[in-house]
Amino acid sequence: MPSKLRFVVGAGLIVLAIGYLITTAVRNTSEYYLTVNEVSARQAQLKDQMLRVAGRVKGGSISWDPATLTLAFVIVSPPNSDGSQVKPIASADPAEFRVVARGEPKPDMFAAGRDVIVEGRLAADGTIEARQVLTSCPSKYVPKQAK
Amino acid sequence: MPFIGQLALALALLVAVYSIGANLLGIRRNSPDLLLSARHALWAMCAMVTVAVAALWMSLLTNDFSLEYVASYSSVTLPIQYKFAALWGGQQGSLLFWTWLLSIFTAIAIFQNRRRNPEITPWALIVLAAVAIFFLGMLNFVTRPFDLLATVPPDGSDLNPLLQNYWMAIHPPSLYTGYVSAAVPFAFACGALITRKLDDGWIRTTRRWAIFSWFFLTLGNLFGARWAYEVLGWGGYWAWDPVENAAFMPWLVMTAYLHSVMIQERKDMLKVWNLALIGMAFMLTLFGTFLTRSGVISSVHSFTQSGLGPYFLTFLIVVAAGYTALLASRVKDLKSPAEFESYLSREAAFLFNNLVLVGIAFAVFWGTVFPVISEAVRGVKITVGPPFFDKVNGPLVLGLIFLMGVGPLIAWRRTSPQTLMRTFLAPLTMGVGAGVAVFAMGLRQWYVLTALSLAAFALGTVIVEFRRGVSARRHLVRETPARALVNLVAKNNRRYGGYIIHLGVVFAFIGIVASSFFRTEVKHSVRQGQSFTIGAYEITYLGLKGVETAHLEDLSARLVVRSGGREIATMAPAKLFYKRQQQPATRVAIRSTPLADLYVVLAGVDDRSGLATFEVFLTPLVFWLWAGGLMMALGTVIVMWPNVRERAALAAALGRDEALGAEPAPGGD
Q1: Which of A96, B38, B170, B341 could be disulfide-bonded to B23 (CB atoms 3.0-4.6 Å)?
Q2: How far, in whole angstroms, is CA B559 from its chain's centroid?
């Protein structure tokens, strides 16, 4: 049936176009999404790559300069976040990375001990130059005094 | 109170189970009494869930912190409107709210179909009850809203500050209403498949439900975007976060469905496709809930991770597999006599619009689940961020706007190229004219030029349609043009309401394009008395003002905005500090005009240096996104308005079956 065939061809072309858009966009926009420990494990191959790193803000590591809008802190792996409770015995000190974000205001939810997602580039010296720092917003809070 | 609520939920579960048994037995034995009893059981379910909701609301309002839920999501000082909103502020409450809506909609569907669809309705009610049982099961056994705490805290830990905002009070209910009401057309689709009554009776019966659902999905997405814009303080309104995507996907599929059912009503085609679409729409609403509740996808809105994920996934798989099998077993009955004849036809435009809409939904789905898939396949979690969605959806939306311009004017079945040229001359001229004008203004981005041309083209189509209708009316009756316009819309509300929705889409699209491409942003740290500029505006920081209540501290900056040396506005962006949660939040100041929004965030105040940091965005035409969204809502109301002709068509569609004497109508009508 030629008319039916024509429509199958037309619809097929649209489907192909959508598929093409998706595959090229995936290739051009994907970023690694890693935990702090994962970054530390494959640090060598990640140099200069765009990353999203999930971790926790280390207490006492935050410095914030409002004049230059520079936020620096240390990101660590939250306890038990990788699903593997057992820490490898070999690495005595847990993985951590210095994060520097320039030109962005400090997010409201940002504080020591909060879970954050850092989006940025891993520089040669092991610092993550962040383009964006996202704070997770849990729907439920446990107030500090209740603990 | 907690005991009453818990008991009501248990009873609701029991009567829901009973209703399925009574319906099944009633269908089998052809017993009107049993079917009636099943309907009564579902009324009782609705009453019981209502009692549970009332109990939770009472507990919230009376600060009953012996309830874990109240202690987690409320506090003594929480303003009363947010105590109401706390019902959907947390997981257990939002599932209870969901179930409540489902039970109400089920009751309404029973009432509407008390003398209609005697064969399909019992099956539809079985489906609705099954969905309700799943949710009630969760509420009774897995995530219980009435769980008590061992020790009663003196105060609750308060609602998330980001949720203490009036948009948050109306955004979730809208979205949930949209989500849940999709269950009704789905249930009737199942009923039609099971009973093999596969004409368009089920579509006409639930058409209003589908539009109702679409209306609230539209509002839910719009309010959500507005909430993000006003509360999150990054100057944008949409970040392609999984949670946003979860709300967007059902909207896309529902939009496709509302268009393609017109082809079935008109040409008796695309039956399988329509059934597939409504199935997809319903499953996407479940998927959305699964996504937000399972923690499977990391989102900025990471919700409390709970054990709900596996249950939802199982339920989703059961629904998907069951529905697919049911649909597959009926494909033979769904053969359509009619066929597509030409590319140059409205059917073709609708079909392609459907493909593009579902394609966008698929792309959004793919981008959302990509981290999970990449981890499963390659062992590495790879995410695609907003650029992915922009890159894929940008071109697809252009196609959609083009088809939106073509659809209303092109004839059914086929059109000759000559007629086509004549019909589209005016809109095409408008489109090209707009493109040239924008080019002359100095804009060179190909996307913006194409987008604005297509928007003008789609706008032109709608104008042509209105003009045509008005002049046809004035030909027949002597009326002023304004009067003719009003009567035109009133007499053909489905058609012209739809065009008003199209107008809204065009405006919203223009707003989105302009705000995505031309937003400018500056960040400055200034001392009192200092100024900075953005665009044509000069902003001076005058000082701080602090207000403190029992609930929060409110520190606002006073700013004067000048343009051309003239003072045009004062603005007061603020930093809030919620005491109970020890949590800062931002209150954005927005000066909105149809041309551009000036959006000021007080990003921080440094006590030592006295520097106040401001982040300021100038976003052109974003006003039209909100205006267009409201226009879409208005158009939908017009479409939903009761219409004599439609009721007659429904009666005719159902009469085809009832003429065979399916049920002796009790009491006439």
Answers
A1: B38
A2: 36
A54–B523: do the CB atoms touch at under 8 Å?
A: no
Outline where B113-200 has alpha helix (H). Answer: 120-137, 166-181, 183-195
Phi and psi torsions of B592, nearest 5°: -105, 130
Q: SS3 for B342?
A: coil
| A8 has a chain B CB within 8 A of its CB | no
Is residue A3 within 8 A of residue B340, CB to CB? The reply is yes
Main-chain phi, psi angles of B230, to 5 degrees: -85, -30
Walk me through the domains of chain B, giving residue ranges and CATH numbers: 1-160 (no CATH), 165-335+343-398 (no CATH), 416-518+624-637 (no CATH), 520-620 (2.60.98)
Q: B131 with B102: CB under 8 angstroms?
A: yes
Q: Which residues contact A140 (CB under 8 A, 6 or more apart)?
A: B72, B73, B90, B157, B160, B304
In terms of phi and psi (left: phi > 0; alpha: psi -120 to 50; beta: otherwise), the region of B64 is beta
Distance CA A57, CA A84 (A): 20
Contact call for A26 and B388, based on CB within 8 A: yes
User: Which three-class secondary structure state does DSSP give residue A46?
Assistant: helix
Taking residues A38-65, what's their average pLDDT? Answer: 85
Residue B134: name the closest of B278, B310, B274 by CA.
B310
- Which residues in chain A are contacts of B382 at CB distance < 8 A? 30-33
> In this complex, is the C-beta atom of B31 within 8 Å of any C-beta atom belonging to chain A?
no
| Domain edges within chain A | 1-30, 31-137
- Alpha helices (H) in B268-384, listed in sequence order: 271-294, 308-329, 346-378
Among candidates A6, A67, A144 on the partner chain, residue whose Cβ is nearest the Cβ of B611: A67
Residue range B346-404, pLDDT digits in tens: 888 898 999 999 999 999 999 998 888 888 888 788 888 888 999 999 999 999 999 99
Q: How far is CA B656 from CA A122, A132, B191, B197, in A?
A: 69, 62, 17, 11
Distance from CA of B623 to the nearest CA of A (A): 25
> How far apart are the C-alpha atoms of B53 and B524, rounded to whole Å?
48
CB count, 10 Å around CB of B194? 19
- Find the closest chain B residue to A104 by CA distance: B523
Rounded to whole angstroms, how far apart are CA atoms B401 and B290?
31
Query: Which residues in chain B have Cβ-Cβ distances shorter than 8 Å to A6?
Result: 343
Task: Render pLDDT for B5-47 as a digit per residue (tens, 0 to 9).
Answer: 999 999 999 999 999 999 999 999 999 999 999 999 999 999 9
B301 vs A: CB within 8 A: yes
Three-state SS for A102-128 is: ECCCCCCCCCCCCEEEEEEEECCCCCE
Rg (CA), chain A: 21
Which letter, b or e, does each residue of B464-500 get, where b requires 16 or more Cβ atoms within 10 Å of its Cβ? bbbeebbeebbeeeeeeeeebbeebbeebbbebbbbb
Query: Does the pLDDT at position A83 exceed 70?
Result: no
In this structure, what are the phi and psi dihedrals at residue B221, rounded to the nearest 5 degrees?
Answer: -65, -40
For chain B, the average pLDDT equals 90
* Six token digits for residue B617: 């965005």
Question: Which is nearest to A25 in space by CA: B370, B372, B284?
Answer: B370
Distance CA B23, CA B35 (A): 5
Enumerate residues 6+ apart whose C-beta is below 8 A from A102: A68, A69, A70, A71, A129
Is B359 part of the contact surface with chain A (CB cutoff 8 Å)? yes
pLDDT in tens, B47-93: 999 999 999 999 999 999 999 999 988 999 999 999 999 998 888 89
Which one-letter DSSP state was computed for residue B66? T
Interface residue A47 vs chain B (CB under 8 A)? no
